[in-house]
Design goal:
- It holds the Pfam family ILV_EDD_C.
- The chain is 35% helix and 13% strand.
- It is α/β, with parallel strands linked by helices.
- The strands form three sheets. An eight-stranded mixed sheet has the order 7-8-12-11-10-9-13-14.
- The two termini are 25 Å apart.
- The chain binds FE2/S2 (inorganic) cluster and magnesium ion.
- The site of magnesium ion has 7 residues, from loops.
């Protein structure tokens, strides 16, 4: 147990020198008497609330409930607004800014008198960003997930955010949906605060945070607008105060076993392919080297049990009622490290002691899984020497072994311009290739990976095709989309060398992705390939371009991912 003099904040407030006097003066300026804060853990509440982030619109109010818990437990809460990464609005993609929020998180925690951190996020990249920064800062930390929004609704039909947007937009392009229906869908797709309620990146990563041991048990599945979410926020605020006294830091929770359990859980959820990149990056901040091979190895022994869209039928609200993440984990106990300690201060097993499953279709039993192996397959081959991924459970099974001629698009603008051009002669057997969309080429690997099906094929009833890119794909998307091809075309990866008509073979059972062009020809093509000019000559973009790693390494900045001295500031 720590004593008040051991608190990090004591260095700011506790001593007798000029600076300590000055810091206490400013606490009075904030309106606090010394007895309200001196000797109490200072809890930094890092809040990604913003008017521009619809998924986090309730977090401004929810921070008040966190503060309630902090006060009740004898701490001193201070809220820090931090950058929000709004998945729908931020361009070219919030992925460009994940590392910026991670840096902001780490440096705020390091430079201010904070003893423990409450991290409030959920919309896609906010979760990995906050956790990467907190892992590097190394303080006691607890994550308050934003919670999924309510189910969407249209004419009594249940809608999933993202997933059904793509689906009905294709129907629109196929001419089966009119203006009136579209206007109704616009109102019904996202109808409450909270992050996407499909098993997209948001639900995947908040669930990963929970199994990593960084949330209170069950926190990640609670719908944003449920009163249980208020209570979870208050309880998280109370718990972080004790975590500080117990000196149970995030560093002590995040070991190799925790990341293995996170991969297991993400796969059993049929989670977003984005998790592959984020977990590699997060583990890197914990000094643990995860590779694509770890995902593939675990995927082969973990069944998909969560029957949630886009890979399944239900939504996060249903998942919560069915028992939530603890319910799912209670069916995976043989695959998890149950003796690991979590933010509760108790083993993971204790978090599952009362877990129950109330609906065997939403959370499947082991003998009736959604898929017998995990939702992500890792591919290698001459087209992806560094690896690529495919969420094969969300694809047409007939396409998982497929050879077809390439139709190549150099970048997203080219794709948008030409995809519906009948002169390209695209058939259902063609393999659509998009390049120029990787970490540098995108930049930020925008979620272009679910390339649109050409309109004439949609009209013929084609709903899936093999698509290959160095982009990412929204976790709410689906289809036979090979993603994260590494190295990307922008740095001269083989994707840069593909030409229209080249045959490409996708073979998911053997985990291969082959361009049927011989090595000598590929070398000739590489010799005449010219690297694109740098896009950014100044600013954050230039920093990003100089330091971003490729997808198979997690897309962190090289200088953030490495170990090394980073001294505590002198608060005197
Ligand atoms: Fe925020 Fe999907 S847009 S989680
Ligand atoms: Mg998304």
């Amino acid at each position: 147990m720590k004593a008040p003099e051991d608190l990090r904040s004591h260095r700011w407030f506790g001593g007798g020198d000029l600076r300590n006097f000055s810091h206490r003066t400013r606490a009075r300026q904030l309106g606090y008497e010394p007895e309200e804060h001196l000797g109490k853990p200072v809890i930094g509440i890092l809040n990604t609330w913003s008017d521009i982030n619809p998924c986090h619109q309730h977090l401004r109010e929810r921070a008040e409930q966190v503060k309630r818990g902090v006060w009740q437990a004898g701490g001193f809460p201070l809220e820090f607004p931090v950058a929000t990464l709004s998945e729908t609005y931020q361009k070219p993609t919030p992925m460009l800014y994940r590392n910026l929020l991670a840096m902001e998180t780490e440096e705020l925690l390091r430079s201010y008198p904070v003893d423990g951190a409450v991290l409030m996020g959920g919309c896609d990249k906010t979760t990995p960003a906050l956790l990467m920064g907190a892992a590097s800062a190394g303080l006691p930390s607890i994550f308050v997930p934003a919670g999924p929004m309510l189910r969407g609704n249209w004419r009594g039909e249940v809608l999933g955010s993202g997933t059904d947007m793509w689906k009905y937009w294709d129907e629109r392009r196929a001419g089966t949906i009119g203006d009136r229906e579209l206007a109704e869908l616009e109102r019904g797709l996202a109808r409450s605060p909270g992050h996407c309620m499909t098993m997209g990146t948001a639900s995947t990563m908040t669930s990963a945070a929970e199994v990593l041991g960084l949330t209170l048990p069950g926190a990640a599945s609670i719908p944003a607008v449920d009163s249980a979410h208020h209570r979870m926020a208050a309880a998280s605020g109370a718990r972080i105060v004790d975590l500080v006294w117990e000196d149970l830091t995030i560093t002590k929770l995040l070991d190799e076993r925790a990341y293995a359990d996170a991969i297991t859980t993400v796969l059993a959820l049929g989670g977003s392919t984005n998790a592959v990149i984020h977990l590699i990056a997060m583990a890197g901040r914990s000094g643990i080297s995860l590779s694509l091979k770890d995902f593939d190895a675990i995927a082969r022994r973990v069944p998909v049990l969560a029957n949630i869209r886009p890979g399944g039928d239900w939504l996060m609200e249903d998942f919560y009622y069915a028992g939530g993440l603890p319910g799912l984990l209670s069916r995976l106990t043989d695959l998890l490290h149950l003796d690991r300690i979590t933010v509760t201060g108790r083993p993971l097993a204790d978090s599952l002691a009362e877990a129950r499953v109330h609906n065997d279709d939403v959370i499947r039993p082991r003998d009736n899984p959604v898929a017998s192996e995990g939702g992500v397959a890792v591919l290698h081959g001459n087209l992806a020497p560094g690896g690529a991924v495919i969420k094969h459970i969300a694809a047409d099974p007939a396409l998982l072994t497929h050879t077809g001629p390439a139709v190549v698009f150099d970048n997203y603008a080219d794709l948008k311009k030409r995809i519906d051009d009948p002169a390209l002669g695209i058939t259902a057997d063609s393999v659509l290739v998009l390049r120029g969309s990787g970490p540098l080429g995108g930049p930020g690997m925008p979620e272009y990976g679910m390339l649109p099906i050409p309109a004439h094929l949609l009209e013929q009833g084609v709903r899936d095709m093999v698509r290959i890119s160095d982009a990412r794909m929204s976790g709410t998307s689906y289809g036979a989309c090979v993603l994260h091809v590494a190295p990307e075309s922008h740095v001269g990866g083989p994707l840069a060398l593909v030409r229209d008509g080249d045959l490409i073979t996708l073979d998911v059972p053997s985990r291969t992705l082959q361009l049927q062009v011989d090595d000598a020809e590929l070398e000739r093509r590489l010799a005449s390939w010219a690297a694109p000019a740098p896009r950014f000559e100044r600013g954050y973009g230039a920093l990003y371009a100089e330091h971003i790693t490729q997808a198979d390494q997690g897309c962190d900045f090289d200088f953030l991912a490495r170990a090394g001295a980073n001294p505590e500031p002198d608060a005197g």
